[in-house]
Amino acid sequence: MNTKKMLFCLVIILGLLLSSCGGSTPQPAVSQAPVTTQAVAEPVTITVWDYYGEATPIKPLIEPFQAAHPNIKINYEAYDWDTTQQKLNVVLSGGGAPDVVTVDMTWIPKYAAQGAFADMKPLSGGMLNGVPWEQAYTAGALKAITYNDQIISALYDFDTYALYYRNDLFEQKGIKVPTTWDELMTAAKALHEGEQYYYEFDADTFHGSQWIYENGGTLLSPDNSTVVFNSPEAVEAITFNDSLLKEGVGLNWTTDEGERIQGVKDGRIAMFSDGPYYMGIMKSAAPEMAGQWRVALHPYSKQPGSYLGGTGLAIPVASTKQEAAWEFIQYAMELENQIGVYTLAGAAPALKAALSSPEVNVEDPYFGGQKAFSIFLQTMETAIPFPYVSSWADIDAAFTNAMQQIALGDKTVQEALDEAAATSQEALNK
Amino acid sequence: MTAIPLPHRFTSSVKKYAMPYVFIAVPVISLIVFLIIPMVVSLWWSFNDYSGLNSPKFVGLNNYVELLTKDKIFTKGLVNTTMFVLLGMSIGPTLGLLTALMLNQKVRFRSLFRTAYYLPVMTSLVVVSTIWLMLYNRNGLINSVLQTFGLAKVGWLSNPHVALISIVIASVWQGFGFETVVFLAALQSIPRELYEAAMIDGAGGGAQFRYITLPALRPVIVFVYIIGIIGSYQVFDQIYVMSSGGPVYSTTTIVYYLFSKFMDLRLGYASAIAYILFAILVVFSYLQLRFSRERA
C-alpha cells in the first residue's frame, strides 16, 4: 500500500518537474557555420514571431503563402515589441528560437555583434525576388541591414524623420514653410502663442542625431573608432536645438507630458519631427484634424539628414529551417505584399519599388491631398542608420543622457556632449 | 536492550516517514531547480563576460571591480535605491502604525476600513504605477489641484530632484496597507489588562504607548522592517512603468539597472549586480536579526 502511494507521488513529482522544464533542449553555441537545413521539398513547419500587433501586414500573408508553398506550414506567434525583445534574449541563448522574427533595427547592433542572425546573402543567392539587393533598397537601407559584409535582416518597413507641421496655421499667419534652420526659428517664433503651437522635440538619440546629421556631423567617425558627437558641427547643431527651447518656442516632450498625440490634438504642438508610422497614429487618434497637417523635408543647415530605422525580418542562426524561413521572407518582400505594409499597417514599406508605387504613393486626404510617401522616400535617400558597434547601447544611453541634461539646463551643450563623448569613447574602446 | 542493526532501523524509519518525505521532496526539488541551481549558475556568470549567445569568457572579478569603482550609473543606482528605501521605510511603517492605532479604537466598519487600506497592496504594482503616471501628468489631477490653489505646476516625473520622491509616494500609497494590517493584528493581541493597570497607575496615553504598545510591537516592527527593506531594495515595477530610470538617471535603481544590462545582453555584468544586491541584503538581514535578538 505504502509503495503504491510512493510510486504514485513520484510520478506526480516527475510530471511536475518535467512540465516545468523548458520544452526544447538548449541549442549549441551560435555559429556561422552552414547549418544543415531540411530541403524545402519535405514538409516543414516554421515559426514566425510578429510584433506588429493588431494591424499586422504579416498575418494575412500566411494563408496565401501556405497555398503557394504546400510543403511549408507556418506556426504564427504574436508578441508585442517589448515582449519580443525580452523573449528573443532568452531564446537566442536558451533554445526555442523562431525561424523568422520581426526585429527593430535599433536592436541590430547588439544581436549582430553576437552573430545571432543568419547571413541572407548565401540563402538568397544575392537576389531579392529576382532583383539584386542593391537595387531593391536605397543605399542607406542596405547599409542598415548589412553587418560585417553580411546581410542579417531584410528591411521590411522603415522609419525616417520628416517635419510634420500645421499647414492651416502657416497659411493663416502667412508663414513660409521652413527649409533651413533660420527659417525654422522664424516660423517657430511666428507660430508660438502662449502655451500653444510649439515645435516639439524629444531629448533622445533619434532626434538629436538628426540635428547633427543636418549640420554635416556624425555620431562616430566613419571607421567607428572615435566618438565625434561633440565635434564643432555637432555642438553647433545641438546648440540650435537648445536655442529653440531657450527662445521659448521649443517644447521638450518629457514622460509626464503624456502621449504626444494629445499635444497634437490640443494644439500645444504645431511642428515636430517623426516617422511615417505617425501618420497612421494621427489618422486614427486625431481624425478631426484631417487637412490641417502636412509633411515636408525637415529643415537643415548643410544637408538633409535623419536616422534610419524600421523593422526587419531576420532568421536566427540557430534555426534549422533557414531555407524555408527565407522563402517566407522573400514572399513578404514581394511588391504586392510590401504594398500591404502600408495598406494594412499604415507603415512605410522599405522596398523602393513599393514606396514609389501608386498604391502607396497616393494623395493622402488627411494631409491635404499631399503624396506624403514621396517626402519619406526623399528622406530615406539621405537617412543614416546608427553605427553597428557592440557598445552601441552604452553610447546611446550616454548621448540620451546628455540631451536630457541639456534640455533640463543642467549643463551647457559643450559640457554635456564632451562628458558623454568621454564615457562613450571608453565604452567603444573596450 | 538488543541493538537493532542500523540498516533495518533505517529502512523501517524510512518506511514510516516515507510519505511526508515524498511530499517535502516536491518543494525541495523545486527550490533546487528554480532557485539554488540558477543562483549558482548566475554566480558563475558574474565572473564571466557572457552575452547568452556565445560562450562565456572568464574575467575573474572584473565585473565587480568595474561596478564598484568605475560604473557611475551603478553608483547612482545604489544611492537612488538607498534613498528610496530610507524615504519609504520612514514613511510607510509610520503611516501603517498610525492607521493601525486609529483602527484599533472602537471604530465602526473597522473591517471595511481595513479592506480599503489593504486594497492597494493587493493591486498589481504595474496598475498602481500606471494610475500614478496619469496623476503625475503635467496636466493631470495633482497639478490641476495645485493650480486651483494658485501654485505652479510640478514636473513630478520630469524634474530630476522630484522624480524619485514621486515614485516613493506612489509606492508608499500602494504598500503601507500591509503594515497597517500587520500592526493592527499585533495591537489587538496586546492584553487589555496591561492598559487598565497602567491607567490605574496614572499613566497617560503617551506613556502607555511608550511602555506597553511599543515594546509589545517590537518583534512586529523588526519583521516589518526586514521585509520592507529587502523588498524596497528590489524596487523595479514602478521605475519601469513610470520613469524608465530617468530623467538623467535620477530614478535608476539597482534592479532596473540590472534589467537594462540583461536587455543589453550583458548577462555576466547583470549577474554581478545581482550578487552585490544580494550581499547588501544579507548584511541588512543579519544586522536586523542580531538587533532583534539582543534584547530578547
Describe this structure in words.
- The complex is a heterodimer of chains A (430) and B (296).
- With 430 residues, chain A is an alpha/beta fold.
- Chain A folds into 2 domains: 41-159 and 309-355, D-Maltodextrin-Binding Protein, domain 2, CATH 3.40.190; 162-307 and 377-429, D-Maltodextrin-Binding Protein, domain 2, CATH 3.40.190.
- Helix content of chain A is 44%, strand content 16%.
- Chain A has helices spanning 2-20, 62-68, 81-94, 108-113, 120-124, 133-136, 139-144, 167-173, 181-191, 205-214, 232-246, 260-265, 277-285, 322-332, 335-345, 352-355, 372-382, 392-408, 413-429; strands at 44-50, 72-78, 100-104, 127-128, 131-132, 146-147, 150-151, 154-159, 162-166, 198-201, 250-252, 269-274, 293-296, 306-307, 309-314, 348-349, 383-384.
- In chain A, a hairpin with a 2-residue loop joins strand 4 (127-128) and strand 5.
- In chain A, helix 10 crosses helix 11 (232-246) and helix 18 (392-408) runs antiparallel to helix 19 (413-429).
- Residues 22-39 of chain A have low confidence and may be disordered.
- Chain B has 296 residues and is an all-alpha fold.
- Chain B folds into 2 domains: 6-46, no CATH class; 65-294, MetI-like fold, CATH 1.10.3720.10.
- Chain B has helices at 6-46, 62-70, 72-103, 110-122, 125-135, 141-148, 163-188, 192-200, 205-233, 237-242, 254-263, 267-294, and strands at residues 48-49, 57-58.
- Chain B has a two-stranded antiparallel ribbon.
- In chain B, a hairpin with a 7-residue loop joins strand 1 (48-49) and strand 2 (57-58).
- Chain B is flat.
- The relative contact order of chain B is 0.13.
- Chains A and B meet through helix 1, helix 3 and helix 18 of A and helix 1 of B.
